Amino acid sequence: MQLVIVESPAKAKTINKYLGSDFHVLA
């Protein structure tokens, strides 16, 4: 699993959907 950190929760949700379950996106 990869961890990705972005600046906004809305963007995190979108990126999470785009990348799939191998990635965990946090804001």
**What integer value in Å does the Rg equal?**
8 Å
Strand order of the largest sheet: 1-2
Q: What fraction of residues sit in β-strands?
A: 25-35%
Number of domains: 1
How far apart are the first and last residues' alpha carbons, in Å?
17 Å
Number of helices: 1
Would you kindly provide a brief summary of this structure?
By secondary structure, this protein is of the alpha+beta class.
Features:
single chain; 27 residues; alpha+beta; two-stranded parallel ribbon; 2 strands; 41% helix
Give an overview of the whole structure.
This protein has 27 residues and is of the alpha+beta class. The chain starts with a strand and ends with a strand. It is built from 1 helix and 2 strands. A two-stranded parallel ribbon has the order 1-2. Helix 1 links the parallel strand 1 and strand 2. It has one domain. The longest helix has 11 residues. Helix content is 41%, strand content 30%.
Q: What's the SSE blueprint?
A:
Elements: E1 2-5, H1 9-19, E2 23-26
Parallel strand pairs: 1-2
